[in-house]
Amino acid sequence: MKVLVIILNYFGAPWIEKVSGALRSAEQELRDQRLIEHLDLYIFNNAPEEDRGWMAWQQLWPLAVIESNPKNIGFAEGNNAGFRYALEHGYDYVYLLNQDAWPCPGMLTQLLGAMKRLPGYAVLSPLQMSGDGEHYDPAFARDVLPKGRPDPQGTVRQVPRVMAAHWLVSCEALRKVGLFEPLLPLYGQDDNWCDRAACHGYKIGYVTAARGIHDRAGRREPKDRLIYRNYYMGSLVRLLDIRRPLWERRLYVLLFTLVKTLKYGSLQPLKYHRSLRRQMKEVRAARETTRKPAAYV
User: Fold this and answer.
1) Distance between CA 218 and CA 25 in Å, rounded?
2) How many degrees, rounded to 5, is the angle at CA 174 between CA 180 and CA 159?
């Protein structure tokens, strides 16, 4: 079994030693279980010349494949470079990992075991925890965890989507579904990929016994950034979800626009609403040119 870890570095120096140490421990666990001989690492340095984070990775992981770009080309394009590498070199799975996230003991063993037992899943995630390891990541808890009742341990729970801070991805599914859509806004690209995977008959889920850390370090977003992420991204992803009839998607977004306008006390959602139709046409046009799996490789 061949597994490639993909990490985008963008001024990620504060987390490199922590992430590297956790991956070394995970590699040893997987070797002890005879699941892999070694864990391969792909770093995409998605930052300008002054960010030397790739040099730290090179010292800690001499065999890592490191690609560097002189400017930030975004979440989708950076990870797509790693996806292409995995597909071209015959990997079975990709572990997509945020630069501020790392696996807890036993996590990768549990995810790989579940993925082998349940080949119908395109993506499996652990329970994503905050930096202290004691509480759930707020976005993960809000979007994924069931309300009012705990998950039974040792199970896999199917969900519509899960954020890509920790993703174990089947390369078989990756070949069929394709890469991230770069024309979509950040925070919508992973949701859109999950929707497309569902159209191909795949499932998305998380393993209730596995845990991974996502250290947001108390970062707070300004209101305009929250509106962009929560309204614009959410609306565009919903409009592009072809599993639902178009009238339902448009009605949802219209009501969503009114709710977010009142919630944030801002006219910004109304301004974004005007650009959604144009954005949909651009994404659909790009999708037509990359429909065949070979185009993604």
Assistant:
1) 26
2) 80
3-class SS at 212? strand
Place of tokens 């801070």: 165
Query: Count of CB atoms within 10 A of residue 218's CB?
Result: 7
Q: What's the Rg (C-alpha) of the chain? A: 19
Residue 56: the pLDDT is 82
**H/E stretch holding 47:** none
pLDDT tens for 40-86 read 999 998 766 666 667 788 888 889 998 887 777 888 899 999 999 99
Q: Name residues of the chain where pLDDT drops below 50.
A: 218, 289-297
> Which residue in the block uniquely carries the two structure tokens 């690609």?
67
Separation of alpha carbons 165 and 213, rounded Å: 9
Which residue pairs, CB below 8 angstroms and at least 24 apart, start in 74-78?
74/46, 74/182, 74/186, 75/8, 75/180, 75/186, 75/189, 76/179, 76/180, 76/181, 76/182, 76/184, 76/189, 77/180, 77/182, 78/8, 78/44, 78/46
Give just the sign of the alpha carbon dihedral 209, 213, 214, 216. positive
Beta-bridge partner residues of 128: 212
Burial of 251 (0-12, 13-18, 19+ CB in 10 A): exposed
Structure tokens at 157: 């729970």
Q: 153: closest CA among 114, 108, 194, 118?
A: 114
On whether the CB atoms of residues 235 and 260 are closer than 8 A, the answer is no
Rounded CA-CA distance 140/216 in Å is 12
At residue 201, the 3 state secondary structure works out as coil
Alpha-carbon span 64 to 203, nearest angstrom: 30
Burial pattern 261-274, b for ≥16 Cβ within 10 A else e, equals: beebebebbeebbe
